[in-house]
Every structure is written in structure tokens, then in C-alpha cells.
Design brief:
Low-confidence stretches: none
Radius of gyration: 29 Å
Number of strands: 17
Number of domains: 3
Number of helices: 15
Structural class: alpha+beta
Largest sheet: 10 strands, mixed
Mean pLDDT: 90
Shape: elongated
Distance between the termini: 61 Å
Length: 478
């Protein structure tokens, strides 16, 4: 537990998160309007999402499936029957003056997310619709009615850093599930943060809520600010009031919006437009059977294949790279360790420059090329420099990898006599680096091997070059 001291007063902090994630459905939650982003203001609305009197909403089945998928992955109890509720409040971006949400019977309850052996309890995951968006000249209702899940944790975090670890892992899991794209810059993942501070040994303090915080850095900064603000109030003998506050990322401070509402203020009641919804056992089990391997299990699996912890994490943190890696593994042409280096290296570099290159048509050829190059690397037939040139030539002009290797004359040179002569020349031209190495500057060896690679146009076997350089340095030292 995080315990700090201000003026010799010891405090503890409790943090709870309410994470809103827009769902990857084709249509909105209760109507047939397209679920999209970036359209001009009020271009994607209808009488249902614009809140016209007399509207009759209908449930989006796909949204229910995605909510169940998230709940199963996060160890929740899936309630076989649930209801929709009306959450009543007035705000300009809420055209009906109520939000169709869940309160009395959420779809998922009592779950947890385990990270490095620690279980973080999840109170519930419930379905609801998003509100519109205020802008300078009015209200844009394009976002109104977009389906989302709200994940509510217990106040189980005791530092900003701990909350960040949870949010990042949650985002990764949600993306792997295909539940949400979690594009923070587009607002499809947002967070309400509840922070309370109290003296050690006293009851838990009054909580303040930071509303609709987007961006992990803003969540982190917001928690730190609230901790200090509340600790300062308590140390000065003031009372911390229950408030809803807004985080100002420009000023790096929280600003009062209103007094924090109580549950009674929303006057929840069952939505009369929706009957009780029943989920069959077959429906839930079908979703469970299709769950993908999640990040935590992938980490263990990739380690068992010989992939380093860092290389595995670099792949897992990018679902596109992970998909490529999995496809390559299934081809069983070269080893996983070799593939991880190629995917985190030449493949990642290419996709950073051409992010829209891969599609369902060319992905198999892309993966096959990586696997063939990986096999050549394992055989010692190409150097890392030649592997990159070979890959780029294949991507730009096509052609078989083995044929390109010969056409471009990129075969790695392993001729011992040739490499001995390279080493002799490099050492003669770089006497200072030789002396530096003898004085203990080990990076001088990498420079000398690099010079061998430069003279051979990247074709010489680097391990043989290193061996020849070391042998000659030792021989000359006798």
C-alpha cells in the first residue's frame, strides 16, 4: 500500500477505475445507424439516437456478444438474465434526458484481472450507450447511442503506477479480444478515476471523481494531483468534499464540475422498452470456445519456444506483429527465436513506413518471405544486412526468396581464407582500435567486426569475422 507523509501525517490512497470502451460493432446500440468515427457533425443520426419522443430502441445482439466475451476473459460471472435500466440526468449531450444502461442486473459481475500474480477485483461490466459530444457551436449526436461497456473495479489500487499497469494490460486484452479498438485519441477508451485519501488508521476518505479522462498520461497525472490536493486539505484540517472534477491537461490540475451525485440522484428504474434478456448456456459456451489466447498465456507460450522476454513483449504489445508471428509459427519453416528477431526488426521497420500494406490477400506471402529468410539466417546463408536487402527486394518486386538470393548475390561468405584476409586488412588499417581493445575497451571489437562487414558489403559471416579478428589480435600479442 502506498503510504506517504505530509507534515508528518501518514496517508493511504485508494483508487477505483470506471473504464468506458466503445464496442466494435457495425451499428449503434439501439438503432441501425452506423457505428463510425470522423463523420461531419450530426451526419450519422436517426430518431432513436437523437432521442425523438416515442422512439422504440432495439438491442444490438453483437454488443451483447462482445460484452460476454470481455466478461469471460476477465473471469466474471456471466449473468444468464439481465435487464436494461434508465439512468436519468439532464445534460445537453443526452437528448432523451436518460441513458439506457444497467444497474440492478449487469451482464457481468465479480471478475478479476490477474497481473504478475496479483488479482485486481472487477465489480461489474455493464452495457450502455454513449452520449453525444459538445463542441464549440453546438452538440454532435454522431456518438450518441454508440455501444460501450463500462468496467468498474473495486478501489483496489494504491498508486498511479499500479493503476497504469492495470489499464495497459486491460487495453491489450480488449484489443486481442476484438471487443474494442481502444483508440484513446478517438475517445473509444476513456476513464473515470475515483480517488480517496485518508490518514492511516482512519476510515476511508471521501472520494472525488475525475470524469472522462482520456490518455494514460492524463490518468497518471490526474491521480498524482488528486492525491496531493486531498492530502493538503486534510493536513490543513479541511474536509475533502465528494465531488466530480474535470482534469485539465493544459494546466495539469483538476477543476470542479459539480457535487458528486449519489445513486439515488439518477432515479434508476427498469427500462420499460426492454424485457428481461435471457442468455442460453449454448450462447455463452459458443463465445467461450472462440476466445483467443490472451497476452498472459502468450508470454508463457512464447518463452517455451525460446523467445526472449523482451522480444516476446515487443510482439505481444502490437497485435499486428503478434498475428504475423502466429502465422509464421504455424508455417513451421524456421525457429521462433529467429522469427521474433525478424518481426521486431525488418518487418516492424517496413510496417512502420507502410502501415496499410498488409491485407488478407498479401499477408500469407509476407509471412512466407519472413520464414524463408529466417531459414537462410539459421543456415548462415545470409547476414542480417543481406536479410534486410533480400526482404525489401522481395516486397518491392516480388520473386522467390531463394532465386533473389542468387540474383542479388547476397549469399553470406563463410570462406575462411577470405575472412582471414579481411581481418588482416582491418587490423592493419585500425591500429588504434586494436590497442583500445587490448586496454579493455570491449566496444572496439564490435567496431573492428563492423569494418570487416563493411569491406565485404555485409556478406561476410559476422561470427567468423569476430573469431578471425580475436585470433589475430591474440596472435600478434604473443
Amino acid at each position: 500500500m502506498s503510504i506517504e507523509s505530509i507534515d508528518n501525517i501518514k496517508f493511504q490512497t485508494a483508487i477505483g477505475l470506471e473504464v468506458h470502451m466503445e464496442l466494435l460493432t457495425e451499428t449503434k446500440m439501439y438503432c441501425s445507424c452506423k457505428n463510425t468515427f470522423g463523420e461531419r457533425e450530426n451526419a450519422v443520426i436517426c430518431p432513436v439516437c437523437a432521442g425523438y419522443p416515442g422512439i422504440l430502441p432495439s438491442m444490438n445482439k453483437r454488443a451483447v456478444e462482445l460484452a460476454v466475451r470481455a466478461g469471460l476473459a476477465l473471469n466474471c460471472k456471466i449473468n444468464r438474465s439481465f435487464k436494461m435500466s434508465r439512468k436519468n440526468y439532464f445534460y445537453p449531450d443526452l437528448p432523451k434526458a436518460y441513458q439506457i444502461s444497467q444497474f440492478f442486473a449487469p451482464i457481468c459481475t465479480n471478475g478479476f484481472l490477474e497481473i504478475k500474480g496479483k488479482k485486481y477485483p472487477i465489480s461489474d461490466i455493464h452495457l450502455e450507450e454513449d452520449a453525444g459530444k459538445l463542441y464549440e457551436n453546438g452538440v454532435d449526436f454522431n456518438r450518441s447511442g454508440i455501444p460501450l461497456i463500462e468496467l468498474v473495479t473495486e478501489p483496489c489500487f494504491h498508486s498511479a503506477a499500479e493503476a497504469m499497469v492495470f489499464l495497459k494490460e486491460l487495453r491489450l486484452i480488449t484489443m486481442y479480444l476484438g471487443v474494442s479498438d481502444c483508440r484513446i485519441e478517438q475517445g473509444s477508451m476513456r476513464c473515470d478515476v475515483n480517488v480517496s485519501v485518508n490518514r492511516i488508521g482512519e476510515p476511508c476518505g471521501e472520494r472525488c471523481e475525475l470524469k472522462n479522462v482520456s490518455g494514460f498520461s492524463n490518468v497518471y497525472d490526474g491521480i498524482l494531483y488528486e492525491e496531493i490536493r486531498q492530502k493538503t486539505l486534510i493536513s490543513e484540517g479541511c474536509r475533502v468534499l465528494r465531488e466530480t472534477r474535470r482534469w485539465d491537461p493544459e494546466k495539469k490540475e483538476s477543476v470542479l464540475l459539480r457535487s458528486k451525485e449519489n445513486t439515488a440522484d439518477y432515479r434508476y428504474f427498469d427500462d420499460p422498452d426492454f424485457p428481461e434478456i435471457i442468455l442460453t448456456e449454448e450462447f455463452v459456451q459458443d463465445i467461450f470456445s472462440k476466445l483467443p489466447m490472451l497476452p498472459n498465456k502468450k508470454r508463457s507460450y512464447y518463452a517455451s519456444l525460446g523467445v526472449s522476454i523482451q522480444a516476446a513483449e515487443d510482439i505481444i504489445l502490437d497485435p499486428q506483429k503478434d498475428s504475423i508471428f502466429c502465422d509464421c509459427i504455424r508455417m513451421d519453416i524456421c525457429g521462433a527465436k529467429t522469427l521474433s528477431g525478424l518481426i521486431n526488426g525488418i518487418a516492424a521497420e517496413f510496417l512502420n513506413e507502410a502501415p496499410n500494406y498488409l491485407n488478407e490477400i498479401n499477408k500469407e506471402g509476407f509471412c512466407l518471405a519472413l520464414c524463408k529468410i529466417g531459414r537462410l539466417r539459421e543456415k548462415g546463408a545470409v547476414s542480417s544486412t543481406s536479410a534486410k536487402l533480400l526482404f525489401e527486394s522481395h516486397i518491392k518486386g516480388g520473386g522467390d526468396i531463394d532465386l533473389l538470393l542468387k540474383e542479388l548475390k547476397l549469399e553470406q561468405i563463410s570462406d575462411s581464407e577470405y575472412i582471414e584476409k579481411l581481418a588482416e586488412r582491418v587490423l592493419a588499417e585500425n591500429r588504434k582500435s586494436v590497442e583500445d581493445y587490448r586496454r579493455g575497451k570491449t566496444n572496439a571489437l564490435a567496431f573492428l567486426v563492423g569494418q570487416c562487414m563493411r569491406l565485404s558489403d555485409g556478406k561476410a559471416d559476422p561470427s567468423l569475422c569476430k573469431e578471425a579478428v580475436l585470433k589475430r589480435i591474440v596472435y600478434e600479442n604473443i
